[in-house]
Amino acid sequence: KAGVTQTPRYLIKTRGQQVTLSCSPISGHRSVSWYQQTPGQGLQFLFEYFSETQRNKGNFPGRFSGRQFSNSRSEMNVSTLELGDSALYLCASSRTMDNTEAFFGQGTRLTVV
Amino acid sequence: EDQVTQSPEALRLQEGESSSLNCSYTVSGLRGLFWYRQDPGKGPEFLFTLYSAGEEKEKERLKATLTKKESFLHITAPKPEDSATYLCAVSSSGGSYIPTFGRGTSLIVHP
Fold first, then answer.
1. Which residues of chain A does B97 touch, with a Cβ-Cβ cutoff of 8 Å?
2. What is the mean pLDDT of chain A?
3. Mean pLDDT across A47-71
4. Distance from CA of B16 to the nearest CA of A (A)
5. What distance in Å separates the CA atoms of residue A78 and residue B65, rounded to the nearest whole number?
6. Among B34, B28, B52, which Cα is nearest to B99's?
7. Which residues of B touch A102 (CB under 8 A)?
């Protein structure tokens, strides 16, 4: 079966711009989580959606936002980009609410210049 | 607050040299402990979920075990293709379902 699909794979943006990343979960999975991964901080949780509702949010500024659509596809948006936002952004999907078996996409590598 | 500490940070092995990676955790109540493998520039690949002390799971050359304070990922007779970063994460029963990740162990297996 198809895995978690993230688009685009790579992005280069200028400081101050905004960006939207997309995630298509595995068919039948209703939970989608987003993470930021950097060499210095490791994997840090951004937010989680289940059935179009944001259930949990990590400790990130309001510039980071997301949403989930009725088909479970999710998007995350980062406004007013800063150099420190350069990272690998990962999406994970899970069939159940308890995320006991979450599957990650390949990620979107965002570079802010 | 849940905490996960993985050791060592980096490990170099010769092909066929078995070893173990450690994941120490602190949670208010364990819902599940997860192991992932991550190749450079790619997303983590799910390996195992362990739920209770004494549980063991195996997949090819990998075996994960769990105690009340730590988990081990044993790698038997590793091959160069086992080179990757191995991530451990825990989810606690006292809070949200969001797992807390460790920083990972970078494994390099030399031929």
1. 48, 55-56, 97-99
2. 93
3. 94
4. 29
5. 39
6. B34
7. 34, 46, 99
